[in-house]
Amino acid sequence: MKNLNVGLIGGGFMGKAHSLAYSAMPMFFWPAPAIPVRHTIAEANEQLAAEAGRRFGFEQSTSDWRSIVDDPAIDVVDIATPNHLHAEIAIAAAQAGKHIICEKPLARTTEESKAMYEAVKDAGIVHMVAFNYRRTPAVALAKKYIEEGAIGRILNFRGTYLQDWSASPDSPLSWRFQKSIAGSGALGDIATHVVDMARYLVGEFASVSSLLSTWIPDRPLQTGGADALGNVRGGEGPRGEVDVDDEVMTMIRFADGAVGSIEATRNGWGRNNFITFEIHGTEGSIVFNYERRDELQVCFASDGGDRRGFRTVYTGPAHPYGEGLWPIPALGIGYGETKIIEAHDFFKAISEEGSVSPNFADGYQTSLIDEAIVASSAKGEWIDVPRVAELAG
Length: 393
Fold this sequence. Notes:
nine-stranded mixed sheet, six-stranded parallel sheet, Rossmann fold, Dihydrodipicolinate Reductase, domain 2, alpha/beta
């Protein structure tokens, strides 16, 4: 069992989630494929870096992410920064021969995503984009049912990601509302998770017909160094422009003939982390709601007419990843467990000199879908989605 030194760039919310995963992964999945060693963490200045290092259990801290990339002791570079830094860091890390895990979306634009993809492909390292929701055991169980043919040929996918943390016009101007940093709004921030689930469960997108909306044109400027999220009411003072989307709706034609839709908003009062999908096939249906993440609802056409309807399967030891989690079904998992599973699969690929999905090819493909969604909204027409060559066929 090999130790692999991790250099984490970014000490915010995602830095916390990743650090927890590195600490806990060997406890859940033993023997672990490798032991993640929290070696060095980078933040915007020395004070923030030192605080993050103490909080998240890293041996060293730095205010210069380049020192992590240049350090020969570092095996893995973890990118948990705002989106505008992803490409520069990932390309440098790939050129230095480091394995890379990068938070989603992979980049702000397809051009950045393509450059990142080509860099890791040329370097021959293990690379992963952190669409962790597909590693929820119930989602993986849905994939198992689909691959077994339990619901037949898929006809329709309906997905949502609804939140309310920015529904108030007095919620501050996070970097997530600034195109120069984020690239897009609800589209890149949350809709990409549902796009990834749709690709994982149904297949590639052929074309989209979409509508983007911005409901709140300006927000209060933030004060302090930390990114402030949430519905802050009654704020006074200067405001800044919002130049990204608040909401996205898109219809989908899949490459295999299925149809679908995705809706994502950060302005849905009463919705917290409402990630859902409903899939209808010729032989049954599957329904998932992340806010009840231990449950998968299924209905099979083979059920007798006197008992046909949705039943609930509670995930546990008999289901995907169950051997590493909790000993009985419905004991409960959280967001942290999805990150622990993600870390396990990433380090397993490194230790076995293999590959893992979703990787930068998937991240690049998602960027192409996002670009088509934006173009469709602007032109008011169906737009075909190009395919990354590695994923074609």
